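Notes from the 1:1 (GR / supervisor)

We went over the backlog. Supervisor wanted to see one worked example end to end before approving the batch request, so GR pasted a single chain during the call. The sequence is below; no edits were made to it. Supervisor asked that the structure be written out right there so they could see what the output format looks like.
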Amino acid sequence: MTEDSQNAGAKRPVTLQSSVLGPLSSDLEILFPDRQITLQGETITVRELNFGEQLRHGAALAAFAAAFTPVALVPEDEPTAALDALAAHWESMRPLVALACGRDAAWIEALAPEEGEVLLIVWWSVNQGFFIRRLARPVLFRVALSQQGPPPGGGSLPRSSGTGIGEAN
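Structure output shown during the call:
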């Protein structure tokens, strides 16, 4: 029996490498959210999906976002809700997690439970900006419409019954 096969079943420590830039909520980490973690003895970079990837995988992301949205505004439930939504949509989300960490789906499936959970939590923290923007999009759209003048041709757009940001009551 080789040393590798003897150690195959042994638990390896899972480490999340802290940033040299300071706390996780620093402005630079918000702008550049990629994170490094150590899984199965390897340092893995988990990155934010780029704009093109978000568009190509829009259906999977929309289904995940819809499952997550009802509890998104309860901060203490966010990590559990995100993991539950990922689990409910795992078949469509697995390729996105694999894409973000540069590994194939089989590698992810073979992770120890603790390592898999760390990967999903880090994936969520790196990619949550997309989902936050998705939640805010309807409000931002209404504000943008309310601030523009009538469309060309002299017509007018009906105003919504709700109050938007910056509107007086």
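Supervisor's comment: Confidence is low (pLDDT under 50) at residues 1-24.
Batch request approved.
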